[in-house]
Amino acid sequence: MNIELLVRKNILKLKPYTSARGDFLSGILLDANENSFGSVAGDEWHVELNRYPDPFHNRLREELSSYMKLEKEKLFIGVGSDEIIDLLVRIFCEPKIDNAITLEPTYGMYKVACDVNDVQTIPVMLDESFQPQLDKVYKAITPNTKLIFVCSPNNPTGNVINPESILELVRNFNGIVVVDEAYAEFTDKPSLINSVQDYLNIVVTRTFSKAWGLAGVRCGYCVTSPHIAKLLYKIKLPYNINKLTSQVVLNALKNSQQKDKFVEAIKQEREFLTDELKSIAKIKKVYPSESNYILFECDNPTSVYHLLTEKGIIIRDRSNQVKDCLRVSVGTREQNEKFLNELRNVL
Ligand SMILES: Cc1ncc(COP(=O)(O)O)c(C=O)c1O
């Protein structure tokens, strides 16, 4: 497969901006119009905040590649995985001409990123077990379909998409399959990261926002062929990952056992919450979750949602995506108990 044939011509031709810190990170730095006297933030951050960060995220990619046990060239780091989704649309989809397929119900940002870039999305419904209907996906593909977004575990349904179905798409689709694994740490089912060595047209996105507990620092990454990683580096804003974010993520990578403990605790609470929800008679269905949220069905979900909000319990009304369904993130035991008590009252 020749990836270049899928890339927008203006992106192929683009002469990327050469940033000062891309050329030099040390020396007597008088090249980037920074403030050589220091920073108003003071010295407490232990990084030179008066200097622009490394545009190629070398240190971060080195540490992440050794943590992930894969080559640095296969990694791209973004301002959350949301930035990566947007960049992929911009690399591959010609506005007003190309389109992308989403497997609905799913994470809403794929469509938003496409809409912002004036790229049509073609929704194809998942089946009643929230698995892809490959025949329908193949029928929906047009000569201008460049991307297929697959979210696994899927948000908001919580299930893992059968990896064999995803790989079948990767093999048969003459475009890029984006596998969003934002919640991969919460399932024991295998990730598709290793498939990157077998196929050029797969991008697996991951994030530090969920299992690692770092939603506030905005850092996501993807694993893909070095060719696509280079394209992402070519078009991103020069200094997308700031030094404070890098510092926090580098520290987090040294402390990955804390992430593992979070994952274990969240899985345990997920089981508790699932069982409790199932025991409430007025809840009609509790979907099994391989993620850190649970989808459940009840009558009048929108009023249940509003009544819970009045009690200070904030969950998500997903009834516009899955009939009569609400989605609750797994909290601490105390939060879960408060949520369950109020939910029982409201129902
Ligand atoms: C499926 C999915 N992908 C990506 C994201 C965004 O992650 P990030 O914080 O890395 O931008 C979310 C956030 O909720 C998500 O649910």
Q: Which characteristics define this entry?
A:
binds pyridoxal-5'-phosphate, 2 domains, 11 strands, 4-stranded antiparallel beta sheet, 37% helix, Aspartate Aminotransferase, domain 1, 16% strand, Aspartate Aminotransferase, domain 2, alpha/beta, 347 residues
Number of domains: 2
Order of helices and strands: HHHEHEHEHEHEEEHHHEEHEEH
Distance between the termini: 54 Å
Average pLDDT number: 97
3D shape? globular
Count of helical regions: 12
Strand order, main sheet: write it out. Answer: 1-7-6-5-4-2-3
What would you say the CATH architecture of the largest domain is? 3-Layer(aba) Sandwich
pLDDT below 50 for ≥5 consecutive residues: which ranges? none
Topology, element by element:
Layout: H1 9-13, H2 20-23, H3 58-68, E1 75-78, H4 80-92, E2 99-104, H5 109-116, E3 120-125, H6 134-140, E4 145-151, H7 163-172, E5 176-180, E6 202-207, E7 220-223, H8 226-235, H9 243-254, H10 256-278, E8 283-286, E9 293-298, H11 301-310, E10 316-317, E11 325-329, H12 333-346
Parallel strand pairs: 2-3, 2-4, 4-5, 5-6
Antiparallel strand pairs: 1-7, 6-7, 8-9, 9-11, 10-11
Helix pairs in contact: 3-9, 4-5
Bound molecules: pyridoxal-5'-phosphate.
Pyridoxal-5'-phosphate is lined by residues 80-82, 107, 151, 155, 180, 182, 207, 209, 215, 220.
Task: Characterise this structure.
- This protein has 347 residues and is an alpha/beta fold.
- The protein has two domains: 3-19 and 55-254, Type I PLP-dependent aspartate aminotransferase-like (Major domain) (Aspartate Aminotransferase, domain 2), CATH 3.40.640; 258-346, Aspartate Aminotransferase, domain 1 (Alpha-Beta Complex), CATH 3.90.1150.10.
- Helix content is 37%, strand content 16%.
- The longest helix has 23 residues, at 256-278.
- It starts with 8 loop residues before the first helix and ends with a helix.
- The structure holds pyridoxal-5'-phosphate.
- Pyridoxal-5'-phosphate binds next to α4.
